[in-house]
Fold this protein.
Amino acid sequence: MIIKSDGNNGTGSVIAGSVTGSGTAEIDRYMTENQWHYIGSPVEQPISTFLSNNPDIPTKNVDSRGMMDYNTEFDNWNDFFTNSNGNDLGIGSGYSIRTTSNTYISFNGSVTVGTINVTLDATGNGWNLVGNHYTCLLYTSNAAAEQSSEDIG
């Protein structure tokens, strides 16, 4: 299965009551060139594989790529990811990423379904970069309006 977003709103989705069977999917997210985008991964996939499959994520200083995550405790961005990063893209984790052209980035793996709980960190200034692991757009302002400040953090 291939789910591909467009340049209008950056989302692509499949709406279904349930998912059965097994297999993998390719989810292609449209990215505008030379702009940082906050993303979440809809699949579990090694970061090194993700970077290898997406050559339009630029390289800096030989091995560093245009992708990083946020360190809430110290209120800053962690170092750029490298091609040899041994970690997986975390479901529910957020990343900042850029590309060198108007293009698609591809995620490959089993689509995440169901509820994902993400633990928020209140250290530093308390800013957390949480990723949307679904293949569709989430309206966070609507969700936030339905929660009290204690629920949101």
Summary: The two ends are 36 Å apart (CA to CA).
